Amino acid sequence: MKISSNWTLALKLVLVSSTLSFAGEYRDRVIVISKIFRNSDPDVQYVARRDLEVLVSDATAPVRANGASKITDDLLYALDQNDIPVEAKKYILRQLARVGTSKAVSPLAQIMMARDKRLAEEARAAIESIRGSKASDALKVAYGKMNTEGKLNILKSLALRGESSSVRFIANELDNSSESISVTAAWALGEIGNSSSLRVLRNAYSNARPGPVNQAIERSLLSNPSVDSNLLYDIFSQGKDSASQRAALRILIKRQDRDVEDAIRRGIKSEEADLRTIAIESALSSGVERFQRAVLDQLGEMGPEDMLTVLGGLNNIEGGVAESIALKVIEIGNVSLRLNALDLIGEVGSKRSIDLLLNTFENGDRASQIKAASAIAKIDTPELDKRLAGMLKSSHSKKVLLAQEILVYRNIPNAKLHLLEAVKGNEPAFARGALKTLSVIADSSDLDQLYTIANSKSGEQKRIIVSLLKKLAPDYGSKLLRQRVANL
Fold first, then answer.
1. Which residues contact 413 (CB under 8 A, 6 or more apart)?
2. Which long-range contacts (CB under 8 A, 24 or more apart) does 459-465 make?
3. Mean pLDDT over residues 370-386, rounded?
4. Domain-by-domain residue ranges, the chain?
């Protein structure tokens, strides 16, 4: 950046000023820096702002005795000079917001109530930051002399100061004829958030008429972690603001307090979609089985969108309840929901789901068969492995063939041994079923065994095995097997 001649002049003035003697310890330097703001060059003003901040930081360093008091006096002195530019006074006020002592309150209050709105707002912000009752009293005194906008700003300042002594003052504004003031007063009490403000808000809520003020009181009550559960339930069940109802329901479920199951049921039955969603999601993620079962109990009355929300939350809950919900959705849901539930059975299912999966795999439509196959592959239950092993030995051919087909998706102990034995056997249907599965899962060792079996067979059975070997050996067989198969 090119340095302007004005900027150079300003810098020289600041450096020279540091050598001056002065009445106040920092007064001359504050004045010199402040007068630099007469120059409208942005670079010059940037240097002035920076040097003022550096001066104030140095004055209030821990090694400086009474630094804050001294610099406050000198900043106030500069504020009182008529020849100091307004722009400089704005930044002096911001420094008083950083370090100003109670000495500054009265002069700042005069500026806050003066005509210059820009300086008035900066003065209010400075008083807001000064500790002690003198500052808060000044804000309260000024309040009655302000227009609506000024009153709103003072209420915000009192809220951010968070003093218990301001609670009664703010509470008196809950019944103000200006709705915006009453709403801001309710917010301010919520920001203070102590037992006194909570008591005021609770009493005001019981007497408030429906509308924006009542909604603001609800929001402030909900922001206080000490609000009692009876009041939360009232906000949820009787409140007119849906956002507050949703927040109250979340807190009730998180607390696991009284009437939660009833609140969940009411939420699920609500006409408002967002409230139903929150009731479902919060209950399922609560970790409390009775809350989760409250969702299960309401499944039959849910529409498709709410059932989909339920399915989306099943991964967060204990397997038994999750499986019950998924099975119920499969029973009563539409096609899309059933497919989603079948997917989830693979994650949360147990032996209770085995019959459903086998039946769907055997008899379902193509989409359902694909989902069932995926669930069969993922479901974590040794009972399914035992069932499939038993089916492979069954005297019912349909069970044997079904189990053989399922082995494409699920590897059970000795699965390939069963299949190879079927190929060796004398039942053509079982041999074909086993070869069909082996065509998907066979490795090099399996192909070697199939070659040996093929040499012991003749006719159609040998032809089928050789056909499979010619198909798989080029990609999956050993070099020796590839040579042997080529000669078949």
1. 385, 389
2. 460/428, 461/428, 461/431, 464/431, 464/432, 464/435, 465/423, 465/435
3. 96
4. 1-130
